[in-house]
Design goal:
With 534 residues, the protein is an alpha/beta fold. It has 18 helices and 20 strands. It has 3 domains: 105 residues, Urease, subunit C, domain 1, CATH 2.30.40.10; 115 residues, Diaminopimelate Epimerase, Chain A, domain 1; 280 residues, Metal-dependent hydrolases (TIM Barrel, Alpha-Beta Barrel). Strands 3-2-1-4-18-19-20 form a 7-stranded mixed β-sheet, with helices on one face. The chain has a 7-stranded parallel β-sheet with strand order 5-12-13-14-15-16-17. The longest helix is centred in the middle third of the chain and has 17 residues.
Amino acid sequence: MNELTPTLVTASTVMTEPGAYVQALAIADGRVVGTGQLDMLRSRYPAAQVLDFPGAVVVPGFHDAHIHLGMAADDMLHLDLSPDATPSLSALVATIGTEAAKTPPGDWVRGSRYDDAKMPEGRVLDRWDLDEVAPDHPVLVVQVAGHWGVLNSVGLALAGIVDDSEPPAGGDFGRDGTGRVNGILYERALFDVAYAASSRTGTTVVPASTQADKLLGLRRALDRWHAAGLTSICDALCGPDEVALFGAARESGLLTMRTGFMLGAEHYDLVHRLGLRTGFGDERLRFVGIKAFLDGAIGGRTCLLDDPGEHIHGIQATSTKDLTEIVRTVHGDGNRIGVHANGDKAIRIVLDAYEQAQAADPKPGLRHRIEHCSVVDADILARMRALGAMALPFGSYVHYHGGKLLEWYGPERVSSMFAHRSFLDAGVTVAGSSDYPCGPYEPLLGIQSMVTRRGYDGVEIGPSQRISATEALAMYTTNAAATVGDTDPTGRLTPGSLADFVVLASDPLATAADEIAAIAVLATYVGGSPVFEA
């Protein structure tokens, strides 16, 4: 689009923010400069060209407030072991074997998005399954939640893990009935082996991909995300490598997504070395804050609960003392922190740390985040409201996990999980997030999941937490923008906002709830320029 002469954007329906409609937008220099009737805007801008989407609906660009671009860029280079690609354990193992057969001995074979809960064999992958098909290669398979994975025997040897090894603090090793390590690494045990962004040593056993390769993976990820209508994201766990990757992508013109990032707390020294502050950067790439971990995952069944039950292997990934010190330091520097906390017990520990930091060094305008914030109650909601703390629960987990949530957590607890209704009613800022690759990235699927509270299997999960389509759309637009910056110019199409929008085949606010995810994305625009066209 011409940056000097406005372009008028019109369609059968134009939504400026959830539930608010106009006939057309005027866009210039990447921003919305006017809204209203098409004839009025034509009169105001007589030289303007018209970009018309007849029969379609224009909505603000979707914004995922907690996703993992750096991780996705790497995953795109390795095996897809999701249920869609490998619908059984035998198919998964065969895929590993096929990849090993064409990989030089000694080189790593890696795959992600393995979902044990959807395997018909009814058991968990272990080292010996992998040894059968890849005896000469180190192999790592990461479970879909990203909080545990499986190494084969060669991989365990490279990691120095033997049967009598002690797991790291905040992590654990899986074992068989005789006490032998079975290859499963939980939480810190996995992070230290595989994830440089959250490794406490800054190095990993699994070799990092080259930046050139990860740029290729990043482009693949962004193409898919733009095709789903995403225009803005917050990568909720980065290390120096990811920051360098995003910088290189920006310089080369590959970073078409507006990208905020949260730096892993293990790398907080980088904040001081570079003089970063929350909000540093610009509208294409900016520093949002610091990320820390307190517990494990919902899908991985490692979250920290007051009453864990028989299915949950709760792990506290960071000690209470260490977390309190991290929060105190980040808060004292005036930076935002987001702490990963799924279980109610974990959330209370995080709130304790936030309250202590605020009491010792009051900063009323500094609002911290609780990443996922999955299991809540009235006490948690009241404390969050008093602090101004923001919640980022999973948007699509009800759909993705379905009836397994009832099996793992029980009907009473799921009624307070991913509690979008409760957060809204309590006046807590709450936003939509996918946590991809841990959950589906499509915002329309997340919206449908929040509105219907039905799983992929048709099972109803905590129906009391249903929200309206208008409220759900706000989760992925205005509310998401609020969690990365109080004056963030994304999430709406009003004068002064960035011209980021999605063209849909139908209006999600006028579509049957169980059909929202099927709405076609026809085009996606960032700054008034197309980044995806069907």
